[in-house]
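Subject: Sanity check before I submit

Could someone independently write out the structure tokens for this chain? I want to compare against mine line by line before I put it in a report. The sequence has 150 residues.
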Amino acid sequence: MPMGRSPAQVTVPLATPALWHHWFMAPHPVHDVAVPNLPSRNFDATEAFYGGFGFERLFRDQGWLILTRAGLQLEFFPAPDIDPLSSNFMCCLRVADVHGLFDAILRTGVPVTTAGMPRLHPVRMQSWGLRAGYLVDPDGTQLALIERPA
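---
Independent answer below. Compare away.
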């Protein structure tokens, strides 16, 4: 839960029968995973934005959207009233080719800048020893794009 928000401020709808079917009928992963649950003001816009750099729809109904790209999975809940300028949502995407992901996002027209949304911050060697850049999506969610060491 983002800091400063109470459970009453962020509502996640109960899973629909179709979503339960997806969760329990799909092949189970080899190991456990944690998946971010991120806000979307508009599922069509979210799917188009992330689809521009390779994410594909795995599941969608009126209350939930799941997008995947290679081994990454992002899940979205409807948040039509979220203010992107005050959003505290974040997640990390740890990838083998951080420059490839950054370039794919850049090719969609997302600018490298320090203000506005969406925006990119360049991939750089970080003080903590890995290369990382940042994407802020149209809904104000910050995604850290972090290299996964070989």
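---
OP: Matches mine. For the report I'm noting this point. Residues 6 and 12 are 12 Å apart (CA to CA).
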